[in-house]
C-alpha cells in the first residue's frame, strides 16, 4: 500500500499544535529565527533541524495511520509500517531522533474500533513516549523489552516501574 501523508489534524490527535507548527515552519535556512524554541521542543543534537522534517514525519505517520485503518476495516490481520516506530516523541517535544510518535497516533486509530490495545515494544531502548501517552488509561497496555542502566538512553523503564499493571 502507498499511504497518504498524515494531515496536521491527524497528527494533532496527540501532538500539540504549536509543536506541529514549529516542525512545519522550521528549516535549516531559518532555524536561527526559531532557536528560542529549541529548548521547549527538545531540538538539538539528537533531534536536529533538517530540510523537510515535517514532510518526513507526515509520511511515516501516514503509514501507521493507514496500517491501523486497514486492520480496523478487516483488510488485513497484520500491517507493518517499515518506516514507523518512532516511540520516543512526546506530546510537545522531540526525543531520541523521534519527532512525531506515529505509534501513539496509530494506537489512537485502533482505539476507534477496538476496546483495548496491547503494544509490545522490542526495541533496545525503552518505549517511553508511548508509555507516557497511555499511562493513565486502562485501554492500552504497553510492554517494553529493552536495555536499562548505566545511563542508557532514555534512562526510563526500570523493571520496578510497572505503573498500574503488575506481572506476578
UniProtKB/TrEMBL annotation:
InterPro entries membership: HDAC_I/II, HDACs, His_deacetylse_dom, His_deacetylse_dom_sf, Ureohydrolase_dom_sf
PANTHER family tied to this protein: HISTONE DEACETYLASE HDAC1 (PTHR10625:SF10), HISTONE DEACETYLASE HDAC1-RELATED (PTHR10625)
SUPFAM superfamilies: Arginase/deacetylase
Signal sequence interval, chain numbering: none
EC number(s) on file: 3.5.1.98
Keywords linked to the UniProt accession: Chromatin regulator, Hydrolase, Repressor
Catalysed reaction equations from the record: N(6)-acetyl-L-lysyl-[histone] + H2O = L-lysyl-[histone] + acetate
Name the record gives this protein: histone deacetylase
Pfam family, one: Hist_deacetyl
Domain Histone deacetylase span(s) in chain numbering: 2-164
GO biological process: epigenetic regulation of gene expression
Family: Belongs to the histone deacetylase family. HD type 1 subfamily.
Amino acid at each position: 500500500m502507498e499511504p497518504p501523508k498524515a494531515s496536521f489534524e491527524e497528527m494533532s490527535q496527540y501532538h500539540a499544535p504549536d509543536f506541529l507548527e514549529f516542525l512545519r515552519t522550521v528549516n535549516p535556512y531559518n532555524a536561527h529565527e526559531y532557536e528560542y524554541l529549541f529548548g521547549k521542543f527538545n531540538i538539538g543534537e539528537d533531534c536536529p533541524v533538517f530540510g523537510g522534517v515535517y514532510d518526513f514525519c507526515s509520511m511515516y505517520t501516514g503509514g501507521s495511520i493507514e496500517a491501523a485503518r486497514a486492520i480496523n476495516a478487516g483488510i488485513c490481520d497484520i500491517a507493518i509500517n517499515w518506516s514507523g516506530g518512532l516511540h520516543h516523541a512526546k506530546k510537545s517535544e522531540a526525543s531520541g531522533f523521534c519527532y512525531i510518535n506515529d505509534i501513539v497516533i496509530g494506537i489512537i486509530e485502533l482505539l476507534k474500533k477496538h476496546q483495548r490495545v496491547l503494544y509490545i515494544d522490542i526495541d533496545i531502548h525503552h518505549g517511553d513516549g508511548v508509555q507516557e501517552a497511555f499511562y493513565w488509561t486502562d485501554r492500552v497496555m504497553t510492554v517494553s523489552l529493552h536495555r536499562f542502566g548505566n545511563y542508557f538512553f532514555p534512562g526510563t523503564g526500570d523493571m520496578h516501574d510497572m505503573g498500574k499493571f503488575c506481572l506476578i
